[in-house]
Amino acid sequence: MRNISFNFIILFLFSIIFFRANDAISQVDTESLRKIDMKVGLSQNLQTTIGLRKGNTEFFALSVAYRLDTLSDKYHAYGVGNLNYQDNSKGVFQRSGFLHLRFLKFWTKYFSQEVYAQKQFDYFRRLKDRNIVGGGLRFSFDIKGKSDSSKRILNIYAGTGLMYENELLNIPKNYSTNLIRSASYLNITWIPSEKYNATSVTYFQQNIFNKDDYRILNISSMNFNVSELLTFVFQFNYRYDSQPPLPELKTYDFEIRNGINFTF
């Protein structure tokens, strides 16, 4: 009985469940892998999810994300990479990935300046190629615990700025765009204990020449720390595009994921 229960828990924690409704939204999350109270120096983060479904619909899915940070008293630089793979019993496969680089220069305890660049492809959403360069201002705020003032229980990060976006979509006539968007985000992390924390990150990107053209992405997750190296992750993602490039595409897309996070 003990072995059966243990196997069931392992299978559940390594499961991944997808609910998809759109194929043309290309925002990606670069905040959720951010670590709290990082030490000066170099740190790395690796996260993987594995999925398998059998029955009327069959598929295998694999996702790998990696993050590298370097931190000093004056600056913070990091790079984030992600690869996703999925196939089914008919041999049809889909894949996506991105590389994001960001540099922050600290002005004060609360404010910093940042610049970033990103390259992305996503066959899930018919995105053949996406290139971004941008920058702006970032605000940081935290609330510390009453019993231990060295530990933060609530962290808030907010940023706003502009970015240049070049997209090429894999649809009839290879639809492409070149425009400037406003880029804002709000990252809230709640840490009630060392064993548990919850994070919600919301991105808002709007075409500065067309107020009706905007995108929203929300990544919400709960993390349960098993040890200093291993964390179980439960995640909900929601995307919205007010003007998808094809009329038959829905404006929203959401998914639910379970996975593990290795920190070393």
Q: Can you summarize this structure?
A:
This protein is mainly beta and 264 residues long. It is built from 1 helix and 12 strands; from the N terminus they run αββββββββββββ.
Descriptive account of the structure:
The chain is mostly beta strands and 264 residues long. The chain contains one helix and twelve strands; from the N terminus they run H-E-E-E-E-E-E-E-E-E-E-E-E. The chain has one helix at 2-13, and strands at 41-53, 59-71, 75-88, 93-106, 111-122, 127-144, 152-169, 176-190, 196-207, 214-225, 230-241, 252-263. The protein has a twelve-stranded antiparallel beta barrel. The chain is globular. The two termini are 34 Å apart.
Topology:
Elements: H1 2-13, E1 41-53, E2 59-71, E3 75-88, E4 93-106, E5 111-122, E6 127-144, E7 152-169, E8 176-190, E9 196-207, E10 214-225, E11 230-241, E12 252-263
Antiparallel strand pairs: 1-2, 1-12, 2-3, 3-4, 4-5, 5-6, 6-7, 7-8, 8-9, 9-10, 10-11, 11-12
Q: Hey, roughly how much beta strand do the residues contain?
A: over 45%
Q: Specify the overall morphology.
A: globular
N-end to C-end Cα span: 34 Å
Give the low-confidence spans.
Answer: 1-25
What class do helices, strands and sheet pairing give?
mainly beta
Oligomeric state as shown: single chain
Helix percentage range: under 10%
For the largest sheet, list the strands in their spatial order: 1-2-3-4-5-6-7-8-9-10-11-12
Quote the average pLDDT.
79
Series of H and E elements: HEEEEEEEEEEEE
